[in-house]
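Quick entry between incubations.
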Amino acid sequence: MKQKAYEIVVASGKGGVGKSTITASLLVLLSRHGYKLLGADADAEAPNLHISLGVADWDRVEPYYEGRVAYIQDELCTQCGRCLEACQFGAVEIVNGRYRINPWICEGCYTCSFVCPVKAVRFNRGVVAGYLKVKERTRYGFPLVSSESMPGRPNSGKLVTETKNIAKKMLGSEGLIFIDAAAGIGCQVISSLVGASALLMVAEPTPTSLSDLKRLHTLARHFRIPSMLVINKADLDESYRLKLIEYAREWRIDYLGDIPYDEKVPQSLERMTPIVEASPDSLASKALFQLAERLREIIEDMDEWRIKHLPPRQEPFVPKVIKPEGR
Amino acid sequence: MFRVAVTGGKGGTGKTFVAVNIASLLARRHQVVLADLDIEAPNDHILLGVDELGEGEDIKLFLPFIDTSRCTSCGVCAKVCDAGALLMPGKSPPLVLPRLCSGCMACYYACPYKAIIPGYHVLGHIHINKVHKGDSSLTLVTGILREGEEHIAPGVYRVKMRALSLQTEVLVIDTGPGTGNHISIALKDSDVVIVVTEPTPLGRHDMEAILKIVKNLGLRTWLVINRDGIGNAEESIKIASSYGVENIFRIPYHRDAIESYYARVPVIALKPESPVSKIFLQMAGLLEEVMAQ
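Done. Structure below.
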């Protein structure tokens, strides 16, 4: 491996296909080969990588302050309703005849305060939007950086960016960060993909997983990130397995192989131990060993692999804009 | 309008599976809209066998345009923009970055010179389809984010408003995974929230986060343990009970569920006699009781 720092993002579009389980096992397997590794959980709204790795306590937990929450001062409010009309997020409601800003929805923009004619909208600032968590050394040796956003807070993508910044600083100029991304293709996933060396896509052979994977890969093309594909629970259905492989071929995605459905996986999850440690002889573990070997080949020659697997053409994101009339 | 929302925190626990089955059952006796508010990865149409969503309506977010004849380059708009969508390059008027704009309109109201003209930026699309399955039909409202866009919350809000505008008897909402404000927006004002979880430590962790939101929103909560049998369901039930969950349903890990998934027909229509379908029938029956109250 070159003396460089690389970021590999594990994502899937669809949730619950095995991102965290696979990330945890790959980290454990690669750590046995002496790589300098770091795990980063980039799913701030539903962080799970620490559970898959059996991390129960943290060396550092720091509050993450971001944004503000608006509230209405009852004694000033004249009940004109302009805030309710202006809010673009539906955060203003009427409760017991009083206007109220729902703190679980408030985006923290200033719109309601600007439209209020009597300045009845105030803000709670210094809101704890989440926590950043660091484990210097998991029981497998490598560090883990994670975060957890507070329920109902907006913009968890910013917290993901913060998590990645800590991870990059801890890793330094050389090594490998595995970023366990959120489901979906929104702000958290976009924050995960920014600056990534490679995207490892996890899919299951189902119609929903295929559909969501295609949407995820559109993002990878916008960012021009070379991608790999692993099919989890691959023996569920042959026709969708083939559709996934066909899609990979079409887009120069490096198809690394399959992991079979294995009931040992949920069992290992219950013990909070990666399957490759809990049941090394299981079918899923054997497939993961092979997957780690394929990944090692890629890592050894990452720069060359990247060139070979770049998406075939430039497909930058183009916003769709509707101009005001007469412009 | 009677509103049921299906959520779960963790991805892949079976939210969509529960939502399409509940909506299809309720549609036998009621006028139902099923709203897919997982705009990042919408899948309800796939499980209902809808291949073509057809022409959609734009999800339009406010986007500022600068009237340069009025703009003094004072920089107030850029200062109030949390999204960083307005840049002030030196002394010239602001530069607008559409992808970063959340459409909050703070700049529009803040500008002292009325130099901002409202335009739009298309976040994604809303599709409305009639779905006929066996002895019932329902209206499916699907929100789809354009790939590359990142502001989920205002998109979810607009798709939900569109679904509400159809004014049907029943609204079934399928939310995305996560616990951010895009989820509270989807859940708000629901008569019943159904939290779908899987009995694993990962499922429990995220279930607890979502139960906190539902509790804070003051909504009635039911729990579905999906794939019952793969892990420790008792532990999940213990945690959920401490949050005041009213009803608990356990859906076994069963071949019928997987078969209906691939057949793209709700299990209640494909295999009405299945133990999985019986649980959905029970759930729908209880929902109708709440509806009647």
